[in-house]
Amino acid sequence: MTRIIDGNEIADRITADLEPCLETLADAGTTPGLATVLMSDDGASETYVSMKRQACNDLGIESIHHELDPDAPADALFDRIDELNDDPAVHGILVQLPLPDHVDRQAVLERIDPQKDVDGFHPENVGRLVTGTPRFKPCTPHGIQKLLEAEGVETEGADVVVVGRSNIVGKPMANLLVQKSDTGNATVTVCHSRTDDLAAKTRDADVVVAAAGVPELIDGSMLSPGTTVIDVGVNRVDADTEKGYELVGDVEFESAKEKADAITPVPGGVGPLTITMLLYNTIKAASLQAD
Ligand code: GUN
């Protein structure tokens, strides 16, 4: 029987483990604070940010929210980041991506104080990750590591195929999985839009992490029996529903389920872990800044 991995249940368990850390910080007079910055009218981005804020409020992390007009000059965002960098009540800063075209995304990520970079996207934190001395692990790949661990999926010696090479998921995922560690030691292949014969690669995998942002790119015919399938995709596709769309992963769930040993659903798979690891990083940031 294929296991449908319950991301909410795993996320709830990890979140419960964070409570003692919050109590320790509270005893020392610190309430962790996460600043979210939204410079977009995109409905999906608004939803993601409000879910992150809700999760902070539920756990007892202070959520400080800033919205900027998407047409505002890039300097307005840089100035806001400077203020947040200087604010001692703000331990973590998250600028929701994507940003408007006129804003240089890399310059924004480099403006955030690396000690407050709870996304782990600043080059200093990327460098620390790649060299095996991570400060903040990017939330989605870190969440996937936690999910594999919770499900008892062995990565040591496993052939893992990561489909997608984004800075947010694909690249940090590959980096984490090749590290010498209990949740690494995998042999990793990174595939992308120019990969020749993607199906041949995914059929050889023990674990497939689908993070290409292409609806239902991977179907059951591309998988071998016994594979663990982690679907990172959250794609809105037009549908005759109340909202006018439905959420679809990068994996064609029904056919993949027939082959997989275990598979994450969309929604309810990876997404809850991403939010939980953001809470984890915010608490870590507050602890490091309290030292
Ligand atoms: N947009 C999509 N995923 C992410 C993420 O993990 N962090 C930020 N800041 N923006 C995103």
From TrEMBL:
Domain Tetrahydrofolate dehydrogenase/cyclohydrolase NAD(P)-binding, first and last residues per copy: 138-288
Binding, NADP(+): 164-166, 234
HAMAP family assigned to the protein according to its UniProt record, in alphabetical order: THF_DHG_CYH
GO molecular function: methenyltetrahydrofolate cyclohydrolase activity; methylenetetrahydrofolate dehydrogenase (NADP+) activity
Protein family according to the UniProt entry: Belongs to the tetrahydrofolate dehydrogenase/cyclohydrolase family.
Name of the encoding gene: folD
SUPFAM superfamilies found in the cross-reference section: Aminoacid dehydrogenase-like, N-terminal domain, NAD(P)-binding Rossmann-fold domains
Pfam families for the chain: THF_DHG_CYH, THF_DHG_CYH_C
Domain Tetrahydrofolate dehydrogenase/cyclohydrolase catalytic: 5-119
Protein name, as recorded: Bifunctional protein FolD
